[in-house]
Amino acid sequence: MAALSLSERFAADASLFPHMADLTNDRVLVAQIAEGDYRSASFLDQRLITDRVGREWVPWTALPDLGPAAPHPHFIFHIGHVGSTLVSRLLAEVGDVLPLREPMLLRTLAQVAERIDRPESLWPPALYEKRLGQVRGWLGRGFGPGQQGMVKASSVITAIADDLTATDSRALFLYVPLPRYIETILAGEASTSETLVQAPARMARLAALLPDFPFALWQLAPVTRVAMSWLCEMASARRRLPPDDPRFRWMDFEAFLRDPTSALAAQAAHFGLSVGADQIDAVLAGSIMRQYSKAPEHGYSPDLRRQLQAEAATRHASAIAEAIAWVEAMAARYNSLADLPIHGR
């Protein structure tokens, strides 16, 4: 019997994971990872690659297009630091779900999409559309019949959410009201630094969404830049994941924490997962709710989250009030922002 080609093996084997792309040389790094690696990994990014992980660069054209009949993944989109990794871990425990958390290849697609109409674009629009379909098929593979791929994207991927969600894909969008978002970011030095580093790109995206945008980043104080980041991701979601589309479910993570049993049941139902109440109770009573989801070796809890938020609210009260006022002024200026849940619903 002839050996299977790379294309045939890749189509049939979810352990062959398309980890990242090299656009200059038009190739993909294929890594070999087990199902347990998918489940344990908080990020399918550069941290995935260790000495024990086999990998090989292959031409993009050597990998198959699985076609429109291939299963497509469902998605979890979010604004960042709003429990998306926790929700991904919970759903992977209650259903036959293969979790894919922040695959780097989606960042490549977002970078291509951002430049697709510019002179420096490496791909023509038709190639972007073709490869978008390829990647959807690749991320929809499972390790067994009926296993559902579920991608937890990084926050910036919301900018291409409508491109990624095929007609048979469902998506969850996680957010929190603006005051809680600011407090959460300011509660940690790493989250504050990360958000400020991403602020220039988010400012550019927000300005592209809003005509005659009247601000430059240098005019915004650091805490207002955090608020701008919330506004950018919420405005992107409003356009890319309209909440009146039944394929997309918006959920306030703070509401999730107040009643996780009902919220997790609603999420499972949205994704078509057959889950019993006993299953949900058992998973919520387990260790996941007491761990920091991005680094499970560290403890964390809803009570600790609220404590850190309250401390940040007190420490930065004046700057937070100024930042919220800036967002409210922007919502008053632009009709497209008027119905965003700034203070929750």
- Please state how the strands of the largest beta sheet are arranged side by side: 5-6-4-7-8
**What is the tally of helical segments?**
14
Helix content: 40-55%
User: Beta-strand percentage?
Assistant: 5-15%
Distance between the termini: 62 Å
Write the H/E string, N to C: HEEHEEHEHHEHEHHHEHHHEEHH
Oligomerization status of the protein chains: single chain
Describe the structure.
The chain has about 350 residues and is an alpha/beta fold. The protein has a single domain (about 5-335), classed as Rossmann fold. The chain has 14 helices and ten strands. It has a five-stranded parallel beta sheet with strand order 5-6-4-7-8, with helices on both faces. β9 (about 290) and β10 form a beta hairpin. The N and C termini lie far apart (about 60 Å). The mean pLDDT is about 95.
